[in-house]
User: Fold this.
Amino acid sequence: MTDNTILITGGGSGIGQALAWRFAQLGNTVIVAGRTEASLEETAQGHENIHSQVLDVADDASVADCAERIAREFPDCNMLINGAGIMSLDDRGDMELARRIIDINLLGTMRMCEAFIPQLSGKPGATICTTSSGLAFVPLPTGPAYSASKAGVHSYSLQLRQQLKGDIAVIEIAPPAVQTGLTPGQATREGYMPLDDYIDETMANFEKDPTPVENLVANVLPLRNAEREGKVEERQEMLARMLAQRSE
Ligand SMILES: NC(=O)c1ccc[n+]([C@@H]2O[C@H](COP(=O)([O-])OP(=O)(O)OC[C@H]3O[C@@H](n4cnc5c(N)ncnc54)[C@H](OP(=O)(O)O)[C@@H]3O)[C@@H](O)[C@H]2O)c1
Assistant:
């Protein structure tokens, strides 16, 4: 919780920004990374222990530049939080959109991990966090590409945890629906969890000793546990009803 140097992708807004502020308050050094310089600067403003780095996780050269700068300027970096992601509430049938979603959400996470494992390896408290979603476990009826990208992040997290065992801890953060700017209107959408409440519960999970390998708030458990409870179809229908109510 303290004395770490943490790179947070997607740290310019939403969940990543809120985590950046919380971890900075606890005395960690934080570097926020994303494509939009202005939002990174806004996150860092007034916090001498928050730095910024322009980064596109879908671009191999940008990821390599970022890894090189962090190794040079922040040699104590021991944590990577992969928060960068995009979503459309309806990505059905749009293969170009599907390609972008998978390139950022899944391959972006893999690119970042591959680029940072060499410099995290062997560091005290070395940790990688990935961000999946409740929708990794019960797909959104209108979000095949998004849901599959997050199911891919879950699978990759399991693989990586085994691969890095004893060296780098791997924690999967699986948020429920949270009020952020991820999709238009979401920041105020009724029924979504307020961001501050989500972050309070997420930080409390990080504080647990030992830290759970999946950071799950109570709201996500109906989706996370659907398969083991034999309720995937039921929960898919629940998501379909929520979408139908919204479009009424
Ligand atoms: N909010 C929810 O309900 C919810 C639920 C489950 C999972 N999640 C996941 O939580 C993560 C954070 O989402 P959020 O809700 O906080 O939404 P958000 O505010 O839109 O945050 C997403 C961040 O990712 C960055 N990003 C997008 N594409 C990028 C790229 N190619 N390279 C680098 N950065 C990129 C964005 O910044 P730029 O556009 O400036 O690059 C933005 O800061 C995402 O992975 C999302 O899928 C969210």
Q: What stands out?
A: The chain has one domain: 5-220.
